[in-house]
Design goal:
Elements lengths: L1 H29 L2 H22 L7 H5 L8 H19 L1 H22 L11 H18 L2
Helix pairs in contact: 1-2, 1-4, 2-4, 4-5, 5-6
């Protein structure tokens, strides 16, 4: 079962790459990156609504929402930023160039979040091995984007 937790992120990476191509095609067809991002989110919202409709998990009481810190509701805003950046960037620099830069940003941020235990992450100190990995990743991003 633990294997699933390793394969699902790989499949999410595949989905993100295919999604960027589809969304870029929509952007080109409509000539409007924000409208294309909106349509993408509407499709995702419909899919999530259907999942909620068929989910057997009970909804929390309305009072539970008032106990949630405001920033915990901002994940969707970050999603809008990511999808819009992808829509604007992918046709200009290509999928490989764009995603290697996204992954570099993700891993550097994840390393810092783990090190400091930010947002409830389990603390995991930065080690020499992790630093070497990040340096290799940054060099790799530079090589992929090098003209």
């Amino acid at each position: 079962m633990k294997f699933l937790f390793y394969i699902l992120p790989v499949l999410a990476g595949v989905a993100m790459t295919v999604q960027s191509g589809i969304n870029a095609q929509l952007r080109s067809a409509l000539n409007h990156p924000i409208l294309a991002a909106f349509i993408s989110f509407v499709g995702g919202t419909i899919a999530l609504a259907l999942l909620l409709l068929f989910s057997k998990q009970a909804f929390p009481a309305l009072s539970a929402y008032s106990d949630v810190n405001w920033y915990k509701f901002t994940g969707g805003l970050l999603g809008v930023f990511v999808v819009t950046v992808v829509l604007v960037s992918v046709q200009e620099i290509g999928a490989a160039n764009m995603f290697v830069l996204i992954i570099a940003g993700q891993l550097v941020t994840a390393l810092l979040m783990d090190h400091f235990g930010v947002l409830g992450m389990k603390e995991s100190p930065i080690t020499l091995q992790k630093m070497i990995g990040i340096v290799c990743l940054i060099v790799g991003a530079w090589l992929v984007n090098r003209k």
